[in-house]
Design brief:
Elements: E1 2-9, E2 12-16, E3 20-25, E4 31-36, H1 47-61, H2 66-74, H3 81-99, H4 103-107, E5 114-116, E6 119-123, H5 128-137, E7 142-146, H6 152-163, E8 171-175, H7 182-190, E9 197-201, H8 209-216, E10 223-225, H9 227-232, H10 234-240, E11 245-248, H11 250-253, H12 256-268, E12 272-275, H13 282-295, E13 323-325, E14 340-343, E15 350-353
Parallel strand pairs: 6-7, 7-8, 8-9, 9-10, 10-11, 11-12
Antiparallel strand pairs: 1-2, 3-4, 5-13, 14-15
């Protein structure tokens, strides 16, 4: 799926999202979907490894009950989180449909029906103010920006200009994607005083618990661990609490249930949890929305990335006034929209082009 414009961050960028749509069918006529969209720079396997794992599961799990297939998936070796996310989502879609529940309600009976979301307005540049004002007009109160791609001095100047133009109720969520050494992080974070900063993600290029803890003690807002979560490990973060927030990406964490389990553990230790996509198809975005609803907090989650895609496999959830509403249908709620089907070298697999 090509993007309307390149996705750029301090850790790299891309202009096309590639992946596999998982479709599982039951003898009772139900169809479940899941998105496997690897993104190695975010911490997943590559597409070749995902294909190999999916082909194996397609052969191994065919004919099993849904519960048995899910148990076999749980026992699988970790290493292909995107493949596991896609296959697990399709199984959970079917199980939720069988139960007559939304996927979010199947995961957590106390899930939300409406989820607050942030606007993703790209990198910090000279056009940021225009994009930010448009997002504020559309009803978003939290705006996410990529930083760490220019000097701290340049970016702080741009942030001050931006803050001077924003309505008072708007806050900024800044994502550095592990851009800075300790000196750069100190310089940037130290200059944010007086700015409407909601949080800063991944400030350190080589994060460790002590370094993040030191930085967190210097700022009043949460530091968040996304890529740092993988580099440090969830045990170190949850046991030592060097930051106040973690970012949950089901495509990176191996699916909805592993991500929800981590969320519950983190919340029990006092950590905030924000759920985000990895710029996925409509199937993946819907799955991530259900996860955010199951996490059930009042933070803005990073879900509205579908607008970056020039084409999609279905209709993604749309933000209205900075919120996303879950559908009332059971399961995931994904409907495949295609105009072209192409056979692939993988037996039984096809490429769907919308």
């Amino acid at each position: 799926m090509p993007l309307r414009q390149p996705w750029v961050s301090a850790s790299g960028g891309f202009s096309v999202r590639e992946g596999r749509l998982i479709r599982l069918e039951t003898d009772a006529g139900l169809t479940g979907y899941g998105d496997c969209a690897p993104l190695p720079q975010a911490g997943t396997e590559n597409l070749e490894s995902a294909d190999s794992r999916l082909a194996g599961w397609a052969e191994e799990l065919s004919g099993m009950s849904l519960e048995a297939a899910l148990g076999r998936l749980d026992a699988a070796t970790v290493g292909t989180p995107a493949a596991r996310c896609g296959f697990e989502t399709a199984l959970l879609d079917l199980l939720a449909q069988q139960a007559g529940l939304s996927l979010a309600r199947w995961l957590n009976p106390g899930s939300l029906s409406v989820v607050k979301v942030n606007a993703m307005i790209g990198r910090l540049d000279r056009q940021t103010t225009t994009r930010a004002l448009a997002a504020a007009k559309a009803g978003f109160s939290v705006l996410k920006l990529k930083v760490g791609m220019a000097s701290p001095k340049e970016e702080i100047a741009l942030l001050r200009d931006l803050a001077g133009c924003l309505p008072p109720e708007i806050s900024l969520r800044l994502d550095a994607n592990c851009a800075w050494d300790r000196r750069g992080a100190d310089e940037f974070l130290g200059a944010l005083s007086g700015l409407p900063v909601e949080s800063v993600e991944d400030p350190l290029a080589n994060p460790d618990a002590s370094g993040l803890s030191r930085l967190q003690a210097t700022v009043p807002f949460p530091l968040a661990a996304d890529e740092s979560l993988l580099k440090i490990g969830e045990d170190a973060l949850i046991d030592h609490l060097p930051v106040r927030r973690i970012i949950l990406k089901p495509m990176v964490l191996g699916g909805l249930r592993p991500a929800l389990s981590l969320a519950r553990r983190a919340q029990g230790s006092g950590l905030e949890c924000v759920v985000t996509t990895t710029v996925d198809s409509a199937a993946g975005t819907l799955a991530t929305l259900h996860l955010a609803a199951a996490v059930a907090n009042d933070l803005a989650h990073g879900l509205p990335t579908s607008a970056w895609l020039a084409s999609d496999l279905g209709v993604p959830p749309q933000p209205v006034e900075g919120r996303m509403q879950l559908g009332k249908e059971p399961g995931l709620g994904f409907t495949l929209l295609t105009v072209l089907i192409i056979d692939t070298p993988i037996p039984g697999a096809k490429i769907f082009v919308s």
